[in-house]
Amino acid sequence: MASIDTILKTYQNNFDSNKINAEIQNIFTLRYKSEYTTENIKICLSCLDYTKLTSSDTDLNVSKFVNNLLTIQAQKDFQVAGVCVYPNFINIVNKTLGSSNIKRVSVCGNFPSSQTFSEVKHLECQMAIKNGATEIDVVVNIGDIFEGNYQKVYNDLKEIRRISKSVKMKVILETGELQDPQLIFNTAITTMYARADFIKTSTGKSQISATPEAAYIMCQAIKEYQNKTGKKIGIKIAGGISSTEDAIRYICIIKYMLGSSWLTPSLFRIGSSSLLGKLLKDL
Question: Which of 15, 77, 121, 241 could form a disulfide with 109 if both were Cys (CB 3.0 to 4.6 A apart)?
Fold first, then answer.
């Protein structure tokens, strides 16, 4: 394969943030009321990666977190897509979920910064998978992105992909730190060529998390990548999604940019620790 820098040159975009934001507002104006439906709230529930990522997590409270979810699901007759935790708790999630087909999702690769030795990141991914992770969420090194070192990012992700080929790999772009539309687009393309199954907005640990503009640009990258390769890549919105209104707005963008076929757990996820109760209430 050609170098990732050569590949990036085949994607020509001149992003204008003002035009992008105007189009996003137009999408919301035309679609928001009609998309705020029971069906779409149910889609948000079924595509939710229910998340617990705090420094005070313990085996006991992670177990309670999962058991509480299972109780609510039994009472309300629904199922989330996945439960997302730090890698040292994935065995607890796996045991507590038992025979449930809810995905066991682990953040990996020195989340949330990606700033450590590559070997350490790779070992953490391997250990998470060994302990039951069926999906891993890894972060790009945005320092390398700012330096324009896309090949290094690509190589690192390709190695993670090699050792995690048995599971789904979501790659976090940390778009709130990148901000610049071209950087977000280039990073998205780089990760998709490294065989990411999903691209994800944010860790939820930076000052700026998911934004409609970032989601729009990521959808544009997914669309152009599909046009060139024929491959569909998923999108995960995470960081600051705390209301049904927020979730529906992202559904509007994804449906407009990519189409209704993306609104399934295999291609769309919302990562949140606080959204579940809001969705159930508004449902």
Answer: 121
pTM given for the model: 0.97
The radius of gyration of the chain's CA atoms, rounded to the nearest angstrom, is 18
C-alpha distances out from residue 155 to 140, 146, 188, 190, Å: 11, 16, 14, 10
Question: Cβ(210)–Cβ(243) under 8 Å?
Answer: no
Q: Which residue of the set 103, 170, 200, 255 is catalytic?
A: 200
Tokens of 82: 């996945």
Q: Of 236, 246, 255, 278, which residue is the catalytic one?
A: 236
> Of 137, 144, 156, 197, which residue is the catalytic one?
137
For 18-282, which CATH superfamily applies?
A: Aldolase class I (3.20.20.70)
| pLDDT tens figures, 209-261 | 999 999 999 999 999 999 999 999 999 999 999 999 999 999 999 999 999 99
271 CB burial (10 A radius; 0-12, 13-18, 19+) = buried
- 200 catalytic, yes or no? yes
Burial class for 35, CB neighbours closer than 10 Å (0-12, 13-18, 19+): middle
